[in-house]
Amino acid sequence: MSFAVIFGVAMGVYAAKYRGRFQDSVIRIMAIAGVSMPAFWLGLLLQMLFAGRLTWFPATGQFDIELKYDNPITKVTGFPVFDSLITGNFAATMNGLHHMVLPALTLSAYSFGLLSRMARANLLEVMSQDYIKVARAYGLSERLVFFKLALRNALPPIVTVTGLSTAYLITGTFFVEQVYNWPGIGSFAVNSLLSIDYPAIMGITLLAAIGYLVINFIVDLIHAKLDPRVWMR
């Protein structure tokens, strides 16, 4: 999600700044592709390209098989990459992050496309407002007008969409973890459904609901920070 927010908003802002140019067209094509492609199909394409043809990243798994014998991970929290980091097993940490690249790209593609399109559309709408024209008439620099006035007022809808897209990330893990054979909560949920494990299914549903509520609560706090009028409603 962090990748989608940072790069999605940045690319949307960049596309709005260079509206109608080549950079804008490339970013819009990337955004449409990210929104349109199913997660499982995009995952297969990334595996074929980066794991099969270019061999830059591993295709499946959380760690290399030989790592379990050369650098075994001490379990502390149950999150292997984090456990390897806090226990000083940096070889396992780097290996886990290397395995995490393709699943993270696959999972964040939809949110990246959605946020970049949203950022571009909102920013262009704000830039057409009268107070932006007045600020330019007063002689304020284009950089100050764009980043200080326009971008701040374009952020609230983007923050709202960020919270809503979290639901996609939660459900998207079911498909992505199956494609990459990643032993996470998505794979656990699928196995629980197939084995009709009702307590596990209820626990996963409750965990997803709590996570969704917490994220939307954080979104409301960010809204209040960006727009103080929210506290008065």
UniProtKB/TrEMBL annotation:
Membrane topology recorded in Swiss-Prot or TrEMBL? Multi-pass membrane protein
Which BP terms does GO give this entry? transmembrane transport
InterPro entries from the UniProt entry: MetI-like (IPR000515), MetI-like_sf (IPR035906)
Q: Which organism is it from?
A: freshwater metagenome
Which ranges carry the ABC transmembrane type-1 domain?
Answer: 1-223
Which keywords appear in this protein's UniProt record, sorted alphabetically?
Cell membrane, Membrane, Transmembrane, Transmembrane helix, Transport
Check the record and name the Pfam families matching this protein: BPD_transp_1
Main location per the UniProt record: membrane
Repeat found in the keyword field: no
Q: Name one GO cellular component term.
A: plasma membrane
Q: What is this protein called?
A: Glutathione transport system permease protein GsiC
Q: Where are the transmembrane segments?
A: 25-46, 154-176, 196-219
Q: Give a yes or no for keyword Transport in this entry.
A: yes
The places in or outside the cell where this protein is found are: Cell membrane
